[in-house]
Each structure stands twice: as C-alpha cells, then as structure tokens.
Design a protein that fits this description.
GO terms for molecular function: glyoxalase III activity; peptidase activity. This is Dimethylallyltransferase. Keywords: Hydrolase, Lyase, Protease, Stress response. By secondary structure, this protein is α/β, with parallel strands linked by helices.
Length: 226
C-alpha cells in the first residue's frame, strides 16, 4: 500500500490521585499495529513527551493478553520504536496519510488537553485524511473544533461507555466520561453491549468503543486508506 500512519500514544502515567499507574492499553496499540503493518502500511509512533510512553500495567495482566500483545512482547522492532517515540510537537501532518490514537486512561489527562494534539487532528481532518480513535482515545476530541464547531457535532461516534467505566470502578477517578463528553459536544453516540467489538465510521472519522474494537477500527482505517 505504501501508506504511512501516525500512532499517537499518551505520556501520562498517573491514574488521578489514586497512586495507581496508567498509560496506554497494550492491545489497543498491538492489534491495530499488526492489522496495518501486515498490509504493508508503515507506522510511526509519537507521544507528547517523546521516548518510551507508559503502558497501563493492568493491560499486561495475563487475563487481557491476546495474540497481538503476545506478538508485541517478542517484537524487538516495535519495542524499539516504543522506546523512541517522536515528540508530538515535532510531527508534521504532511508526512502521513492518517492518524490513529490508541486508548488507555492516560489520554484523558494529557492528549485531551493538548493543543498540539488538537491542532494535529484538525490538520489531518481538514487535509481530507482519516482520523481514528479507540476506547478512551475519542476523549482526545473533547476540545477539537473545525470552523468553530466541535468536530464530533452531528457525527456518528462511539467510545468507552459509562457502564464500562463503571465496571472498572473509575467513574469518579477520570477527569470526564468519554460517552458523556461525546453526547455533550453534539455527537450522535451509539454503542453495543459492554466489552463487545464495535466501530463507527462517519466520513474520515473512525471511533471504536473498547479494547476489543481496536482491530475493527484498524480494518476500517485500512479501507479508507485503500
């Protein structure tokens, strides 16, 4: 395909004031990464601070391992890429065909508030390039506007549900609930049963509900890139 996709990962590792750690969810990097690279798409990783982004320790629990995460654990090329993510401020939209944001709770703190990230998403979208987000990552769209209107306004979207957040007992810890924010900003929010794969495409915007949806989001992204 000879296409290049930018993956933007969180640099944030504190789960509110709980004293617990967070970061990106490993499956939400691994599954889309292989779904795309196996099709010959080149993937470059970036994060707000550059360097090694934090992995949510919970996502390394044996209960959450998949073929993709096990493949990542042995993939020296990907592990080296992770150690050397580009600082987000140094990224140029022109170098890429699309952007993809894996989730985990971390993005709700740093990427959701990052004007650099907001400007980057706007640049991709207005250049007619796909923008994709999974699980908590649709939260980074919180303040993204195009021509003064929220990007998600009037768009079909999904993201981590209130009931899923409740199930992981972090409703009172996160700075905001992804589902509530998408609705508040005018998104036409939909979802499936908790923890089931679900992805929504609206033009150039692709969103996925939860970790199980990450491969589905990547498949939809590869269709747009084709």
């Amino acid at each position: 395909m000879n296409k290049k996709v930018l993956f933007v990962l969180t640099s944030h590792d504190e789960l509110g004031n709980t004293g617990l750690k967070t970061g990106f969810w490993s499956e939400e990097l691994a599954a889309p990464y292989y779904a795309l690279t196996d099709k010959g798409i080149d993937i470059i990783l970036a994060s707000p601070k550059g360097g090694q982004p934090p992995i949510d320790p919970k996502s390394e629990d044996p209960a959450f391992q998949t073929d993709s995460t096990q493949r990542m654990d042995k993939d020296t090329v990907l592990l080296d890429k992770l150690k050397h993510t580009l600082p987000l401020a140094n990224v140029k939209m022109d170098d890429y065909d699309a952007v993809f944001y894996p989730g985990g709770h971390g993005p709700l703190w740093d990427l959701a508030e990052s004007t650099t990230s907001q400007q980057l998403i706007t640049a991709f979208y207005t250049a007619n390039k796909p923008v994709a987000f999974v699980c908590h990552a649709p939260g980074v769209l919180k303040d993204v506007k195009i021509n003064g209107e929220y990007l998600v306004k009037g768009k079909n979207v999904t993201g981590f549900t209130n009931t899923e957040e409740d199930a992981v007992q972090l409703t009172s810890v996160v700075p905001f609930l992804v589902e509530d924010m998408l609705v508040k900003n005018g998104g036409n929010y939909s979802k499936t049963a908790d923890w089931n794969p679900y992805a929504v495409v609206d033009g150039l915007l692709i969103t996925g509900q939860n970790p199980a949806s990450s491969e589905k989001v990547a498949e939809e992204l590869s269709k747009l890139l084709a």
